[in-house]
Design goal:
The protein contains five helices and four strands; from the N terminus they run E-E-H-E-E-H-H-H-H. With about 300 residues, it is mainly alpha-helical.
Length: about 300
């Protein structure tokens, strides 16, 4: 047995459903009056007074407004309060039982649904395996024959075609004969004693190049890759090596007067006898692992 639930309408707003105890409480507090519209189904509306189920609450409301004590005509206030409290307790208990029953029914429905889905999934997988095992074996032989014929035709066609002449290989990665230019690929080339004064070799790939005794005065080698390069006795005066990688490079006896090596990497480089006069070394990585201070000149500070 479940308690009756009620809707109430305030202007154009409908609220509910609520238990009867809450409606009675709203009446006693004055939130709902005798002419307030209530309904059990949200369609057929009546007033609180015409309903006939909230006389006690209406009497209490009237007594409260007149300043009289609340309660029935023949009953003390404490009896009335106890009756109302018991009614509210019963309403709340019925609500709790109804909610528990609905929750149990919902969980049972979910369990049945999950079990059904798992059963259907397993049955589908079994049917698929059975269908695969029942494949006609005679279909495999024609398929294999067709594959073999296709391979044979491809081989025959390839033999009939005349070989095309190979395109000349472009030495884009390494070309020792290429002129000096930015990003040129001279890695490993022999450029000893070459005259490269004022050459623009920005970003050039010069790893392990031989530039012993070369004239690189005022050349631009910013961000060039000179790892392992040999620059023994080279003229590097006023050269720009900003951000260049000179890891393991040999700069023995090289002239680096007024050169710019800001942000250059000299890790493991050989600098024996190299000349540093007015050479900028701001934030350069020195051979011993130190990072030169900004604005360092001649000496890694």
């Amino acid at each position: 047995m479940t308690q009756a639930l009620w809707y109430f309408r305030d202007a154009d707003q409908v609220s509910g459903p609520h238990p009867a105890a809450l409606i009675a409480q709203y009446v006693e507090l004055g939130r709902l009056g005798p002419d307030s519209r209530i309904s059990q189904d949200g369609h057929a509306w009546t007033s609180v007074q015409e309903c006939g189920q909230f006389e006690v609450a209406l009497r209490n409301l009237s007594r409260t407004r007149q300043g009289e004590p609340r309660g029935d005509a023949g009953a003390p206030d404490w009896e009335t309060e106890r009756a109302l409290a018991r009614q509210r307790w019963l309403d709340e208990r019925l609500d709790s039982e109804a909610l528990s029953a609905d929750s149990a029914e919902h969980r049972a429905g979910e369990s049945v649904t999950v079990a059904s889905l798992r059963h259907d999934h397993a049955q589908t997988g079994q049917l698929a395996r059975q269908a695969w095992q029942r494949r006609p074996a005679y279909r495999i032989a024609p398929l294999a024959a067709a594959v073999l014929v296709g391979v044979a035709l491809a081989v025959w066609y390839g033999q009939q075609r005349q070989p095309e002449p190979a395109a000349p290989r472009l030495m884009t990665d390494k070309d020792c004969a290429a002129p000096a230019r930015p990003e040129v690929g001279w890695q490993g080339c022999d450029k000893r004693r070459a005259d490269l004064a004022r050459a623009d070799l920005k970003g050039a790939r010069l790893g392990k190049i031989l530039l012993d005794g070369a004239n690189l005065r005022q050349a631009v080698l910013d961000y060039a890759d000179l790892r392992g390069a040999s620059l023994r006795g080279a003229d590097l005066s006023q050269v720009s090596l900003r951000g260049a990688d000179l890891t393991q490079a040999d700069l023995t006896g090289a002239d680096l007067s007024r050169a710019t090596l800001d942000y250059a990497t000299l890790t493991g480089a050989t600098l024996a006898g190299a000349r540093f006069s007015g050479t900028r070394l701001g934030k350069a990585a020195w051979p011993d692992g130190r990072l030169c201070a900004p604005g360092s000149v001649d000496v890694c500070g």
